[in-house]
Specification:
By secondary structure, this protein is an alpha+beta fold. It is 29% helix and 32% strand.
Length: 247
C-alpha cells in the first residue's frame, strides 16, 4: 500500500485541535493565588473573635469586681443554697416523723422533730437548728418548718407555714415561695433521721436570677422575708388558720 495522502493543515490544527494542550501557566507572580486571600480572611475572622471574646471577658471581670457585681454573685449563691434541704437530723429527745409530700399536691404521714440538722439546707451548708411538724392526709396537709437559732416553735412568725394538697391549696392559697411548691420528705426515728426536700420554686428562682428576674423575691433577704414579687405590697406572716395538732 502506498503512503497515506497528505492533506493541508486546517485552521483547527493551527489552533491545536486534536492535540494535547499544554498546561495553563501558573498565577502571575505579581498576583497571589486565591487560596492566600481565603487564608488571610480566616485569620482576620479568628483575630476578630479573639478580640471580641477578650473584650467580653474584661467587661464581665469589671462587672464582677464592682459592688453591684459582688451583690449579684452573692444573690446567685444564696439562690443556690435555697434549692434543696438534704442532710441528716439529730435530736436530744426522741421524736418520730415519717412524712412525704409530692409537688405540694398530695401528702402522707405525720411527725415532729425539734433538734439540729447537718447538711445542705436552711439556706446554708453545715450544722444548724431545725424544727418541723407535719401532717399529710392525701389531698390535704399542713406543714411548718423553722431554721436557725432564731426559731421558736411557739412563735409562728419565726416559722414557714403552708398548706398543701388539692384541698389545702383551695382552702388556704397564700403561701411563701420557699416551700410553696416543693417535694418534702422527713424520716426521723428516735434521735436520728433524714431530710430530703426539693424546693422547685427556688430552683426556678436560681435560673431566672441569672437574667435579672427575682422570681421568689428573696435577693438580699433573710429566711421568711422572701415573698412573690406580686405580693410585695401585701406582706404576710403565714396562714390565718393554724390547725391544733395532737403532737
Amino acid at each position: 500500500m502506498g503512503a497515506a495522502p497528505q492533506y493541508p493543515r486546517s485552521t483547527w490544527d493551527h489552533c491545536g485541535g486534536g492535540q494535547a494542550q499544554a498546561p495553563l501557566p501558573g498565577p502571575h507572580p505579581e498576583f497571589p493565588p486565591f487560596e492566600s486571600f481565603r487564608e488571610e480572611k480566616e485569620v482576620n475572622m479568628q483575630t476578630h473573635r479573639v478580640v471580641k471574646y477578650a473584650g467580653a471577658c474584661v467587661a464581665i471581670a469589671f462587672f464582677m469586681t464592682s459592688s453591684q457585681g459582688c451583690a449579684y454573685m452573692k444573690n446567685r449563691g444564696h439562690d443556690a443554697l435555697q434549692m434543696a434541704d438534704i442532710g441528716l437530723s439529730f435530736s436530744e429527745k426522741p421524736y418520730f416523723s415519717a412524712y412525704l409530700c409530692g409537688f405540694s399536691a398530695i401528702s402522707f404521714g405525720a411527725g415532729k422533730m425539734d433538734g439540729h440538722f447537718l447538711g445542705w439546707g436552711g439556706d446554708q451548708v453545715g450544722w444548724t437548728r431545725l424544727y418541723h411538724r407535719d401532717i399529710g392526709l392525701g389531698p390535704w396537709s399542713y406543714s411548718e418548718i423553722g431554721w436557725g437559732d432564731g426559731l421558736d416553735p411557739q412563735k409562728p412568725e419565726t416559722l414557714e407555714q403552708w398548706y398543701a394538697g388539692f384541698i389545702g391549696w383551695f382552702q388556704h392559697p397564700p403561701r411563701r415561695p420557699a416551700y410553696g411548691v416543693a417535694c418534702v420528705h422527713y424520716l426521723h426515728l428516735g434521735w436520728f433521721g433524714f431530710v430530703g426536700n426539693l424546693r422547685y420554686a427556688e430552683m426556678i428562682d436560681f435560673l431566672t436570677g441569672w437574667v435579672g428576674y427575682d422570681f421568689c423575691g428573696d435577693d438580699g433577704k433573710k429566711f421568711r422575708e422572701e415573698d412573690w414579687p406580686w405580693w410585695k405590697d401585701n406582706p404576710r406572716t403565714g396562714p390565718i388558720y393554724h390547725p391544733d395538732l395532737p403532737f
